[in-house]
Design a protein that fits this description.
Number of helices: 10
Strand content: 15-25%
Helix content: 40-55%
Largest sheet: 7 strands, parallel
Shape: globular
CATH architecture: 3-Layer(aba) Sandwich
Strand order of the largest sheet: 3-2-4-1-5-8-9
CATH topology: Rossmann fold
Radius of gyration: 19 Å
Amino acid sequence: MIPENQTCTPGVRVIVVANEKGGSGKSTIAIHIAVALMRSGQSVATIDLDARQRSFTHYIDNRLAWSRQRGKVLPTPTHVCFDEESEYSTSEDEAAGRTAFTSTIEHLAAHHSFIIIDTPGHNHYLTRLAHSVADTLITPLNDSFVDLDVLGSVDPETFAVTAASHYARVVEDARARRKLDGKSDIDWIVLRNRLATLTSRNRRCVGDAIRDLSQKLGFRCIEGLAERVIFREFYPRGLTAIDELDEITLGARPTMSHATAQLEVQGLLGSLLGAPAGETDSADPSGQAHAA
């Protein structure tokens, strides 16, 4: 559960979805959290810091376009995407970027109860700044030692953790900065994503290593989404597994895969947000995006 006292600005909670590796499912997790919160009656704003890839922004654009095409309202957050930056930024550019980021957070915090920030898959000054304002940090991690390497290295023979890695140090620095500023600690969640549906030796070994790292680094681990094609099919239409997946919304008849994905996401969101599984289904799915 997200602790009540963890806020960087009174009245708002900031959730940052981050991992210094692409392809871990950050944007998918971010949009599902945003829609779930809106369906439970919360006011939500989202920020895309990946100025080059813009996967989160494209997801929301697809959602709005599909909503218009189907003639059906889909809850969509207030969204801000930071502009494309030059390949080589100066210290003045970075200072301006930090000011713009801080102003954006303050503006959104005045009108929303949650701000969700999606970050690029590389070390960037705005990503580091986002970590320092995070009340909750969610790190999706594909279930492999390749992806685990951003958190820590392992012994090649025993798979035991031998050292923390570069991204773990970014989080450590953000926590130290928050402590100096008199803020509460970051609630760090590592989300094991794209899990294989069958148990394997790799899955067990990765799980053991993550549990070891959780003790060393101070995060809690939650099982995320299984490797399902259905989640990839949602993206072009901007849909999520917790939308009302009828034939009008989907553009096709729902299948058992949709029902399975919906149950899986409800359970995941219950673990992340402290809401009972399925609670998001009972709320009124209303709301449209507006300019920030």
